[in-house]
Amino acid sequence: KKPSRWLGIMRDITEQRKTQDQILKSEDKFRTIFNASKDGIILLDEDLKILDVNKSLVIKTAYTRQNYIGANSLDFLTTKTAEDTIKWLANLKRSQSVENLETELKNSTNTFVPVEISASKITINNKNALLLIIRDISERKKLESKLLKSVINTEERERLRFSQELHDELGPLLSAAKMYVDWLDKPNANISKEELIPDIKTLLEEASQSIRNISFKLSPHILQNYGILEALKAFIGKIKEVTKLEINITAPEIPRFAEISETVVYRVLCECINNTIKHAKAKSVNIIFAKSSDQLAVNYSDDGIGFDLEKVMSKPKGIGLLNMQSRLKSINGELHIDASPGHGTNIFLKINTD
Fold first, then answer.
1. Which of 44, 51, 203, 306 could be 130's S-S partner, Cβ–Cβ 3.0 to 4.6 Å?
2. What is the model's pLDDT at position 229?
């Protein structure tokens, strides 16, 4: 018997198709970025097993993709930070994101490369996954080591310099004053006290001035008591006693800010001036301060012979510039240097003062 009627149900799946297309496009886009990234990328399942790795990671470590797939991700990281890494991954599984992790990644020769790993949760093929982006920080670690050595060497040079100043300047003055006092102490000495006492006073005054000079170099009391502008003007005043370099300061009124930050900015600017005197053959220097509610910016420029920045930074004499960068980095500041042969030098620094 033939059916007397047909029943049909129609459903509009336009939106569903659009959603599916968007998902496919999104995953295609992800795959393109995944394969093109210069950083290494690892995809993990929720059990921390490796689902996939990109080409960059394979090239960096010289492992094959097959070595990675299905393996435990921890097998490819240093055991030195294994406990921290496990905690870090556990935190990632609990929250949406975590701070970057510094650790070491093993390569096929069983050596380790310093890396920084950033991570986030994603959904791929309708499954939850963890995305790890692995950046090689070997060069950064080398620079940090170089900066640390620079700081240590600078401190040692400063100690040696002050030791020499104490020995060569203060030592002879005090020795001479002691010798005069010893002569006065001799009962039968054929010496006029009226002549010796003024000489002793002169020697002690010179010794006192020498101590003040050394104290100023160690930690200028003007900086502590009156702030960076007055301290810088005092330093420039001493510079003008021995050089014809014209140094101009343009600055608004600058309220006091953190002592450590004031000291760092002062030391960096003094180093800039010393570098100009030693190397730039400049006639003038301009130092321009700009202050906002929570930041201090300083632009330092000279009209000297300039230099090849890249070339200098690659040689030992670039350590001074690295040391300046290190000092500012220690207070979360910024330092930018613009220099080229024949065009003078421009240095821009910025710090937070809140």
1. 44
2. 93
Radius of gyration of the chain (CA): 33
Which tokens go with 61? 């470590």
Helix, coil or strand: residue 332: coil
In angstroms, rounded to a whole number, what is the distance separating the alpha carbons of residues 310 and 188?
71
Cα(142)–Cα(192) distance, rounded to whole angstroms?
Answer: 66
Q: How far apart, in whole angstroms, are the C-alpha atoms of residue 27 and residue 21?
A: 10
Mean pLDDT, consecutive 10-residue stretches, the chain (354 aa), reads 60 56 54 78 86 88 90 82 79 75 88 87 80 86 73 69 72 78 71 76 81 68 86 87 88 90 90 89 94 92 91 69 82 90 93 88
Q: Is 115 in contact with 109 (CB distance < 8 Å)?
A: no
- Report pLDDT for 27: 58
How many Cα neighbours within 13 Å face the side chain of 327?
A: 25
Side-chain-side CA neighbours of 81 within 13 Å: the count stands at 18
- CA angle, residues 307, 297, 306, in degrees to nearest 5: 10
SS3 77: strand
Hunting for tokens 């080591």 — which residue is that? 145
